[in-house]
Structures are given as structure tokens and as C-alpha cells.
């Protein structure tokens, strides 16, 4: 990925004059597009890595896999949140890992962790680097040195059990690599989060990722059958059956542990045959509440679409306005819902028929296939659009949460109000959009996208809005994150999430597996 | 429940002369039926409870809720495994809790735990007392006194969110009580394990129970949205959304913690409207492997029956032979499969049609509705039949496990061989039967029922067979328990299950919440 933006340069977007004009008139964004900064303008603090440690790391995994050059360090200096990208472009000296190490096996990961624990070197596990919550921030904790442990060389499909539908993948396999490795055998993982093109299997597990097809294939944590974890105090290999009553499910402690308890090196996940067929159908609802109730009926009845999403009026409207820029279409006002259905022909036909009947009965207007196909076609474009908007002087950021169906409207109002009031009070009126992208029988996620003009200090500007939104989320009893994880940015709300004793339990687990505290300091644990 | 048997006296079964004759001729069981022993023959070790502790407990929760009479102690002296029942009937002095306390609220549970931690009194949480793994064994650990903490007074429906489909139930609510409380509002929990008639919500959560309708409504751990837990060091209230990425899922540490980490006092669970309709269909398969492959196709395709089971040839044959005794019918040889489908009329119709087509294509012969209805009618009878067989001089016991589909045949062979060889070597040839009762896309459970003649020392006899079976299970990589939990009896295999470091993690969590180790000593943690 590029050092200062999402993705790769060839997909960078330009904003049309119409969009720039709209940004200026509606939100007061300075329509002067700045060129992206040059990489040479970025200044890194010099590496702290001692000569002795460098030599030892070379001996452990080979000198070609220990990198201290600035280009590599800069590309491991953080994730891809809007604040991360703003920090990257700053020309003041910035922090970065003192070295980037690229082990080639589970045993090398284990050896590195033992070495770093003995030598008091902090370790930040690094997969695709797509965190938007500061999860790969090169925080040192109390340590003099910090290294990024990049898992990209662990990129193999270790086993495929076609009868059980279980693939064992190494942690560094990216989303597209997984689909390619499995696709040659006729299988698919079916995990398509926004970060799909760059994020890794290990990262999906470590952060409880949820993909756009979660209604059909489940969240990534649901897919996980087994995890192999290296810690400074030894190995774990957890998960002996599809389901078990052999005590607490320790997989669920390490899934979601964000590198603070160990490094996941292998994951056995449920896979499924590449679907025979896919049905697409879009719907329009007169308002968000009606649409949400319709989605609820579908998921509670068990009609099991593969994808089911609902944009609110603001998001539906913006997509309509931006149709040319984001490659999508939004042919109706109101609230746009997208559904897809995958599987065998008979399966798709019956599920699609059942869901269509329920959605129509709940007040939906059938928009046909095209908007759903357009959504799928453009679904990885949003982060590129964000980079263009950031360069045009706008703040664009997203945040997400989840709650029960009965609390959903309350949550949406609370977060929308908090973001709007915070940013308006700072002199930058905001467009706040929302969608549901993950549904469960008992509730749903809400995903917010915020656009406003940058102030002179956009990091402080966004930090205030983010704090207001987080406080609003916990005040109505929702979760601080549905699928972005905790990292550095959600840590202030973890005590609300798990309680004081819950925090002590997390610390007790960490002390058992990482007694010196080298693993991903400053993340997750309240 | 009765002190020496499953359930209540009015449902006790008598064996027919034909069955007794079959037991004698096939397995060498002495066909002389003994009368059940008298309760007065049971001798309990005197209570250790000190006068001072008795007075303090009275002050904490009221003297009428502190019981030290032998009748109450005897009914809390253990669970309902076959070894438990054999021990109960022994006329040598037997162990029992020194007192049984019945708190009336979460706060009283918390106060009791704090008191017992301060006074070094072991606490065994007690729900329905249906454990078949020694989970409510009154073990003292290193403590002088042990009390059973019976949750039966926590029997309320605290909240019902009909929009989200979430009920908050207190831990002492039994299966039938839950259905009654929810039923008046048009809802059902849909959790029907073998222990349904007596087991409790708290016990379902603490042991990761799985009901016969797990294909449709999920395991109990899947249903749990939120748990409230009292520990000696404070409270936990875990679960803020249907799904979250806010770190490790601490619910999954306390669900399945079997009273060793705290006492679950409230559980918010997913519920669903009482189904509009139920479809029943039974199938016959020529052999177990063909039937298992058929079930696998159904669950991997997502045809989602509510119940789906498959008996092997031996179990199908015995059910046929015992039809008159167990109230069921088994009109075909081969392997009998049962399916049911619940939901709205449209939902049931499409799912049933899809599953029927798949099962027929996979080699099933349609047996119509009746065998499935008969199975449902008699599904809670087996433990009563066991009591009659125990009294007739037979050993009858069950054990269960789970693995991936590709390993299922291997597992079945290994366990069947281990049980058969162990019991045959002891001079008691055994009938070993097996069924699949819980299916997942990646694998299934196997449930074994063993019948043989009792030797002079049936506890030692069964212990040898159980050890052989457990060793066989872990040797083929399966889980030591799919839904019976760990308790005392599966603890020897927990190190195989979670590894040495996993065991240390469990102990670290216990030390954080229960530093004096009063909670359910001798269970779960390896």
C-alpha cells in the first residue's frame, strides 16, 4: 500500500468539479485540491535499534528479513484511519518502528517473541496494516525499542479439508490471496470486508473482522475453527471440534486479542464451495425505520440473504449525487437496501423468494438487480474516495457500533447528534450518513460516515467529534466497536465495555502469556 | 428430583419380561429386578458447618434459606450420571454439602461469595442438579466446609424485548419454567436438551448446553447475549450487542466456566416467536456413513432443519426392539434419521422441500412423519429407562464428543472399539450405540450409549471403560465433550483439550476472580 493513502496509486481518484462545488457550497470545504505530499517530505525519528539487537535479529531470521530502511519503517508507522493518514503527511519528525522483521514460520515468530521478551523489545504484529483504530501504532510502552512483526511471509494454504469445508491458512495470507488459493480448489472464504484487498487472515481473526457477506457466511470470528498462537511463554493450539463444552472457549480470548496476547500464525476457517449462482435485488424504503424493520423481519425469519444492507436517507442521497464518482447508482430517494443471495440454484431461489415477499410486505419497493450489482462493483472504492476528499480539504472518517433492534433508532440518533453538534460547534457543519451492513436476529450494526471541512487542526477537530460519538455510544448501552476493533483509539471506552473486573481479567490473561508486556503496548486493555 | 434416580417417581418405568429376557440372553444381565433402595438406607457424613458460620449464613439470606437437613443435603450430593446414581445408592457413609443455601437475588449471591471467600468455605453452584460429569460433586478442595448454592429462588423473567427477541431470565429458571414464562407472551426459547425438564438457564450457560433443536436455534452458548456474573471479587455484566469487536469475548470465558469463575445469576438469551407450524419427516439410510453424508449435505447447503438426528444401526435396532418400552417406533432397519422444521408456514415449506430433496438424493428412504413425531413424544424418557435398567443389574451410560465431518467415522470407530474392548475384557460384553444429534457445517457430535451387565464393582468397571473412551477421543483429535461439560469426570483430559499454556490461562483467570479458590473446587481446570 502507499505510505500516505489507501491502496495503490493506479486506483487513486480525482474529484469532479461538480463534487468539489458541492463540497464547497454545502460544507464550506476549500475546493482547492492539493497534490499528494512527496514521500521525501516525511521525516522519521532515527531507529533506536541497537547494533547488538540487529545482529541477533539477523541471526534469528536472516538479515534480508530485518529491515531498518526508512521506506519500510514509514510503511509500518501506523494504520489507515483518517488521523493516521493526516499524521503520515505531517512534515514534523514522526515515530515509526525501529525495525520491521519478517519471520517465515510459526517457529520463527515464537523465537522472535522469546527473544524480544528477554531483551525488552516491544513487538507490534503487522498484517495488512489496514487498522483504522491505531491497532498497529508503533507504541513503545515503557520500552526503548519497538519492532513491527510483519507476517506477509506466512502466506500459505496449509490444508484444505474439502469434506468438512475447513481451510487452514497462515496468518499473512491476504483476502485476495485466500480467494485465489481456495478458488483453485473450487472453494471460497466469503469474507469481504472493506479492507479485503489488503487485510490478512491473521488480522481478520485478531480484530474480529466482519465482511459484507456476514449475513450469509458469518463474521470472521464465527468462521474460525482453530487458531495457532505464538506467545512469549509458549504455543497455543485451540479448537478441537466445530463446537465443544470443554469449558470456556479460549479461542474467543485470542480471537479479538489484537496482538496483545500473542501472535496468531495459523487459522483454520470454514470455507464453502464457490456458489453456483448469485441473485441480486435492491429495494427502496420510504424511511430508515421502515427499512430497518424490514431487514429485521428477514433476519429473524431466517430467510438468510448473503448480503443485506440499508443506507439511510443521507447516504442514499449522497450516493445519488456522487454516482459518477463512486461508480455506483442510486436510482431512488428514500433509503436504499441491497440484498444478494448465494448458493445452489434451488437454495438461492427459495431464499430469494422468501426475502422478497417479506421485504415487499414490509413496505419495500423493488428496484431490480442493477443497484445491487453496482454496489458490489464499487464496494472497495470508498477509501480511495476518502483520500481524494482528504486532499481536497475535507475530513472524511467512519465509525461503527452495534446494538439490539429495539435500541437501534436511539443509537442512531445519539451518535448522529453527537457528531453533528461537536463538528458544528467547531465551525464545520457536517454531513453524517449511516447504514446498516451487518444484521443478526437480535440486532444490527450501524456504520457512520462523516464529511466536513477540515479546520486548521484536523486531528484535534476529529478527536473531539470521535470522543463525543464514543461517549454517545456507551451512554445508550451499545458496543464501542462492531468490527473495527479496539486498538489505541477505542481503549478509553473499554472499561465501559467490559467493566472494571473485566479489565482485570484481560490483564490477568496478558500477564499469563506476556509477563513482560512486550506485545502491542497501549492497545486493547483498559 | 428423586434422590437416587432421574426425575419424579410417577414416570418411573418398568421393564417388560421381553426386555429382561433380551438383556439376559444378549448381555448376561441378571434379570432379577431389585426394588429401588429406601432413602433411609442412605447415610451422610455429618455436616461440618460450624455454628458461627450457620448463624452468619442465616443473617445473610434468612434462616429458612439455609438448610442442613439430610434430605436436602442428599439431594445436593451430586448429579445424575450413572456413577453418581450408583454412589447415591451405596449404604456406606457418603459425602454431601455441609449446607445448602438458597439466595433470593444477585446481591445475595454476591454477598454469599464474599462471605465464603473470607471464611474459606467452598461453594458448589447448583441449578437443576442434572450434571452427568460430576459438575455438582460436593468436593471440598482444601477447605473444611463446602456448601451447595442452589439458585432455584432466582426464577423470574426479568425482561422480554419482543422487538429484538431477547429475554432476560434469572439463572434458576428451569427449562419448563422458561417455556411457560415466555409462552404467555407468545415466545419460546427453543432449547430442549435431554435434561430440559429439570435443568436451569444458569446451568445451560455454565455448561454450554446444546438442545435437540440446535440445528434450528443454535447451541445455548450461541443464544446467550449477555451474562451477569457474581464472583468473590465483584460483578461482571458482559455483552453489549449481538456482536462486537471490542476485544476478546469475555462472555465466552464465563459461559462454560462451570461455576469455577463465578456464579451466573442472569442470562439474556435470544428467543423466537412460538413457531406457526412444524413439519416432521423421518428417513431411513442403508448405513451410518451414507446417513452422515446426507446430513452433512443438508447442513452445508444451509437447508436449516430445526432438529436433525441420525441413529446408527445398533441404536436403530434397539429402538425397534424396545419400541413398546420407550414409547417410540422404529419401523425400518438400517439407520433412522429424524428431521423437524419450525417457523412460518412459508419458511417451513421451503426448508422442508429443500431438505427432503437433498436427503432423498443422498440415498434416504422417506418414512413419513410418524417416526419423527414418536421420537419427539418420547424424547425425555431415556433417563427413566436407564434407572429401570440400572435396577435390573445393567450398566447404562452415555458419553459424547464432536469432530469434523472428515474425522467422524474415525472417531466413531475409535470410541466404539475402546468401549467394546474395555468392557469385553472385564467379562461384560457391551452393546454400544451411537447417534448424531448436533450438526454444523464443518462437523457433528457423536453420542454413545452403552449397555452391559454390571460386575460386582460397577463403578470401577465403568471408570475403566470411560477412561478408554476418553483416551480414544483425544487420540483422534476430537473434543472430550460436545455438550456435557467437563466437571470432575472430564478434567483428566483438559490438558489435551487446551494444552499446557491454555491450562495456565484458565488458572490465571480463576486467580483474578476467585483468588482464594472457593468456587467449585476440583472441576474444570486441569
UniProtKB/TrEMBL annotation, chains A, B:
PROSITE patterns: FAD_PCMH (PS51387). SUPFAM superfamilies: FAD-binding/transporter-associated domain-like (SSF56176), FAD-linked oxidases, C-terminal domain (SSF55103). Residues 30-96 are annotated as: Disordered. Residues 51-73 have a biased composition (Basic and acidic residues). It comes from the Bacteria. Pfam families: FAD-oxidase_C, FAD_binding_4. InterPro entries: Alkyl-DHAP_Synthase, FAD-bd_oxidored_4_C, FAD-bd_PCMH, FAD-bd_PCMH-like_sf, FAD-bd_PCMH_sub1, FAD-bd_PCMH_sub2, FAD-linked_Oxase-like_C, Oxid_FAD_bind_N. Belongs to the FAD-binding oxidoreductase/transferase type 4 family. This is FAD-binding oxidoreductase. It comes from Rhodococcus daqingensis.
